[in-house]
Design a protein that fits this description.
single chain; two-stranded parallel ribbon; binds pseudouridine-5'-monophosphate
């Protein structure tokens, strides 16, 4: 067992008794939403997973400890501290651990810690990817490299069009990461159910998702897979409106010379500011929707074991 890893008793018991577990990230809590909506959402997402028959394991770094399964107090702490908690990607992990610091885990580090703990399925909102203009900036999220090397299934609502969605799919293809559409042929774009890009496969049930994941494990394929689950129709946003907001945010970031790890948080904050409560409501609903699908898939996977 990893000497820096703390698995909560509930999660440990679940894992040793083949009770399904779903991992959740903490960047979405500390950086993705304002307080107190971030706290309320984190609690509701955990409850949605329980209601679907699985145990939630929210993941974060607290005082240099890698945590799989948080207490309510710890979730409150991450929600209240917000952006004071550094966003932790793969390159930050050893520094934060050695210095006993806190970190809000991204898709990358949540996958890493989930895998260390023995958790196979992880639900989030959106993933990082190839940024627009990456042909000159080389800004490609570490999330894609992690999907290429860590055997965890990530359930998301696609990616925001702050990214170049076409190049993101090309990158995933090169790295051998399957992109599985849940009841869709087209890659969802987070706030909207569709983009103009095709997924690899249209999968109809959580049972089918579980059996594809099981096959990957039994084939000893080292990477993960991406499940893209469209936002429920009722909460989806107008494509032209949100695309306009995103284009303006990308132009502003370029004009201000925003770079590196600041790019994604800057763009997300801009979108939030311009769209106000509408995008936040959509964001909350799509995360809940992904948590339910991830939990149903974890239940199906535990039955196959
Ligand atoms: N995209 C979103 N919402 C998010 C993120 C990305 O629509 O909250 C967060 C996730 O934690 C993701 C990270 O793993 O940002 C990617 O950051 P970067 O692009 O710097 O790799
Ligand atoms: Mn980046």
């Amino acid at each position: 067992m990893n000497r820096y890893l703390d698995i909560s008793n509930e999660v440990k018991n679940a894992l040793s008794n083949n009770v399904p577990v779903v991992a959740l990230e903490s960047t979405i809590i500390s950086h993705g939403m304002p307080y107190p909506q971030n706290l309320d959402t984190a609690i509701r997402v955990e409850q949605a997973i329980r209601d679907s028959g699985a145990v939630p394991a929210t993941i974060a770094i607290i005082g240099g400890r890698l945590k799989a399964g948080l207490t309510l107090k710890e979730i409150e702490y991450l929600a209240k501290e917000g952006t004071n908690i550094p966003k932790a990607s793969r390159r930050d992990l050893s520094y934060l651990v050695a210095n006993k610091k806190d970190g809000a885990t991204t898709v990358t580090t949540t996958m890493m810690i989930a895998h260390m703990a023995g958790i196979s399925i992880f639900a989030t909102g959106g993933i990082g990817g190839v940024h627009r203009g990456a042909e000159t900036t080389m800004d490609i999220s570490a999330d894609l490299e992690e999907l290429a090397q860590t055997p965890v299934m990530v359930v998301c609502a696609g990616a925001k069009s702050i990214l170049d969605l076409g190049l993101t799919l090309e990158y995933l293809e090169t790295k051998g990461v399957p992109v599985l559409g849940y009841k869709t042929d087209l890659l969802p774009a987070f706030y909207t159910r569709e983009s103009s890009f095709k997924v690899d496969y249209n999968v109809q049930t959580p049972e089918e998702l579980a059996s594809i994941f099981k096959a990957s494990k039994e084939l000893s394929l080292k990477g993960g897979m991406l499940v893209v689950n469209p936002i429920p129709e009722k909460y989806s946003m107008d494509r032209e409106y949100i695309d306009g907001v995103i284009d303006a945010a990308v132009n502003k970031a370029n004009a201000l010379g925003i770079k590196g790890k600041e790019t994604t948080p800057f763009l997300l904050a801009e979108i939030k500011e311009v769209t106000g409560g509408d995008s936040l409501k959509s964001n909350i609903e799509l995360v809940l929707n992904n948590a339910r699908l991830a939990a149903r898939t974890a239940v199906a996977l535990s039955r196959l074991k």
